[in-house]
User: Which sequence fits this backbone?
């Protein structure tokens, strides 16, 4: 299984969108500071996740979410799932 996930920083409130095959491990990497691009905004928490059978499906969805480039669109999607 592959995941597309959206994290939110508890410090800045910013969002990060990514994909992986082991979600728990990836979140731990983010919060341990092993992802340089978002290291300063730790800690992160998962606000949205989707499961895919293939990496290709997860990558396509990640690209779609990133193409929105709108905080409001992402927040609307997150609220719809809570």
Assistant:
């Amino acid at each position: 299984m592959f995941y597309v996930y959206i994290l939110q920083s508890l410090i800045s409130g910013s969002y990060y969108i990514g994909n992986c095959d082991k979600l728990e491990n990836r979140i731990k990497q983010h919060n341990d500071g092993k992802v340089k691009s978002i290291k300063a905004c730790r800690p992160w928490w998962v606000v949205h996740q989707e499961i895919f059978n293939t990496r290709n499906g997860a990558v396509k969805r990640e690209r779609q979410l990133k193409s929105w480039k709108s905080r409001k669109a992402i927040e609307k999607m997150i609220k719809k799932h809570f």
Notes: Residues 27 and 44 are 8 Å apart (CA to CA). The radius of gyration is 12 Å. The mean pLDDT is 94. Residues 2-81 form a domain with the GIY-YIG endonuclease fold (CATH 3.40.1440.10).
